[in-house]
Design goal:
By secondary structure, the chain is of the alpha/beta class. 32% of the residues lie in helices and 14% in strands. The longest helix has 18 residues, at 78-95. The relative contact order is 0.17.
Length: 96
C-alpha cells in the first residue's frame, strides 16, 4: 500500500508560478495567465497562454484522487505556494 507524505524541497517559485495548474471543485486554473475552466484530468498546457503544466495544486483535500488522475505532475501544497509567493510579492513591494 502506498501513502502520500509531504516532503520539503527548495524550488524556484517563479518556475512553479509559470507552470502550475490549480484545481478547484471540477476544473483547473492556469497560474501563469489565470485562465479558468481547464480540464485538469487531461490538459498538458494552458489553452490560452500555452504554459506547459509541470506542477499541480488543489483547493480541496482530494489529493490522492487528483494525483491518481495526473501522476505526470508534481503535486505541491497550495497553502505553502501562496505563503511563499505572497511573501515574495510583499518584499518586492516594500523594496521598490
Amino acid at each position: 500500500m502506498s501513502d502520500l507524505v509531504r516532503v520539503w524541497k527548495e524550488v524556484d517559485i517563479a518556475d512553479i508560478a509559470k507552470s502550475l495548474l490549480i484545481i478547484g471543485l471540477s476544473t483547473g486554473d492556469c497560474s501563469n495567465c489565470r485562465e479558468l475552466g481547464i480540464d485538469y484530468s487531461s490538459a498538458k498546457a494552458c489553452p490560452k497562454c500555452g504554459a506547459v503544466f509541470k506542477y499541480i495544486a488543489s483547493r480541496s483535500k482530494e489529493i490522492k484522487k487528483i494525483k491518481n488522475k495526473r501522476p505526470d505532475l508534481i503535486f505541491i501544497d497550495l497553502e505553502d505556494y501562496k505563503k511563499v509567493s505572497g511573501s515574495i510579492k510583499a518584499k518586492d513591494f516594500f523594496s521598490a
